[in-house]
Specification:
7-stranded parallel sheet, binds uridine-5'-diphosphate, 6-stranded parallel sheet, Rossmann fold
């Protein structure tokens, strides 16, 4: 398909890269020109560069260098820099994914320039407005013209907020496309960490509610220790968690726990290899709840709620909270062979990137042929 103007695609932070890679591949395959813009929200080798290599992402045409700072500082910096980039090119469409700061800031910049917005992973809701990601989701969906949902339940959330059904398209889960491809690129990470398949638990924790404040972070660490008392545990420590451990003088605590290895964040191929061979995964990550459901792996979500309820209703995810005793009991059950089974949700089939590309193409086609004074949108 040929069109005059390219699409602008914005990525910001780790969970964006695996969501956008299949979409860019599908756009490429259809001859749709795009410009990849990296806001720089995650900018270091471990949280950004390695994913470009592992996922085969093209080099960004623009890197806006908006890393660091408070939420407001980062949002403001991205808003200004994306606006400048959009004004220089006036793309046919802006595409954003997920729920990070850069997702909302880029969408806001485009909306004020009357550039249409497509949001991948629309409609997820934790219904907890104290989560910065929830604010980003709700507001990005409000601004978006094309809302691409990963699961059927997401549309219900959007309709309940008054979003018109014509704006919503079910495409399935793009993250699972990347997961399928990574499974075909196993690495030697188990050897490097002296692990045997099924012989360890894998843990990730980085939500502000679990790691930012001292009492909570101590409780979070007690929970990780409860897992490590039962089973060798690998803890991939997110830079946010690392920074909080350091600031609160807790870095040594992890080193003293027998059976626990705290490691730097891994690249995608290493992490997927480690995850697929784990006995169980304990996490507060959104994406990892989905990946474990796609892999049929036991997942303990160390939160009170999830914005991805389908991983519980259909998948292998259990919401256990952060109490040491509840998590300990859940691990004991898994080790005793009482494992929650599940099925892979509709549209988590490795083809979601293609459906996104088709939806973007149809959207742009419809806009080109629409009368200039169309009805006001809801
Ligand atoms: N991930 C990774 N290396 C790690 C930890 C996670 O590649 O050390 C991947 C994981 O497989 C998933 C994504 O990062 O694809 C999830 O990102 P994150 O947990 O930062 O964000 P969330 O999903 O909570 O928005």
């Amino acid at each position: 398909m040929r069109q005059e103007k390219p699409i602008d695609v914005v990525v910001s932070a780790r969970p964006n890269f695996m969501k956008m890679a299949p979409v860019l591949r599908a756009l490429d395959a259809r001859g749709v020109p795009f410009r990849l813009i990296h806001t720089g929200q995650h900018f270091d080798a471990a949280m950004s560069e390695v994913f470009f290599r592992d996922l085969g992402l093209p080099n960004p045409a623009l890197n806006l260098g908006c890393g660091g700072g408070t939420h407001a500082e980062q949002t403001a910096a991205i808003l200004v820099a994306v606006e400048r980039a959009l004004m220089a090119q006036r793309p046919a469409l802006l595409v954003v994914a997920g729920d990070v700061t850069g997702t909302l800031a880029a969408a806001l910049a485009a909306s004020k320039l009357a550039i249409p917005i497509a949001h991948i992973e629309a409609g997820l809701r934790s219904f907890d407005r104290s989560m910065p990601e929830e604010i980003n989701r709700v507001l990005t969906d409000r601004l978006a013209d094309l809302l691409l949902t990963p699961s059927r339940d997401a549309a219900q959330n959007l309709f309940a907020e008054g979003i018109a059904p014509e704006r919503v398209t079910f495409v399935g889960n793009v993250m699972i496309d990347s997961l399928h491809r990574a499974l075909a690129r196993p690495t030697d990470i188990l050897n490097r960490l002296s692990l045997t398949p099924q012989g360890y638990a894998l843990v990730t924790l980085h939500r502000p509610a679990n790691v930012d404040e001292s009492v909570r972070l101590n409780a979070t660490l007690a929970t990780v220790e409860a897992i490590a008392r039962r089973l060798t545990t690998i803890f991939s420590v997110h830079p946010r968690t690392q920074a909080r451990l350091h600031a609160l003088g807790l870095s040594d605590r992890l080193e003293r726990v027998q059976g626990l290895s705290a490691i730097q964040p891994l690249g995608y191929d290493d992490f997927v290899t480690l995850m697929r061979h784990a006995r169980l995964v304990a996490t507060d990550s959104g994406g990892i709840q989905e990946e474990t459901t796609a892999l049929g792996l036991p997942c303990l979500t160390l939160r009170r709620e999830t914005e991805r309820p389908i991983t519980v209703s259909e998948g292998t995810n259990q919401i256990v909270g952060l109490s040491e005793s509840a998590v300990g009991r859940a691990v004991d059950e898994i080790l005793a062979g009482k494992v929650k089974t599940g099925r892979v949700p509709e549209g988590w089939d490795g083809r979601a990137g293609e459906r996104v590309a088709e939806a973007l193409i149809s959207f742009m086609r419809a806009r080109r042929s629409a009368p200039v004074d169309g009805p006001p949108r809801q």
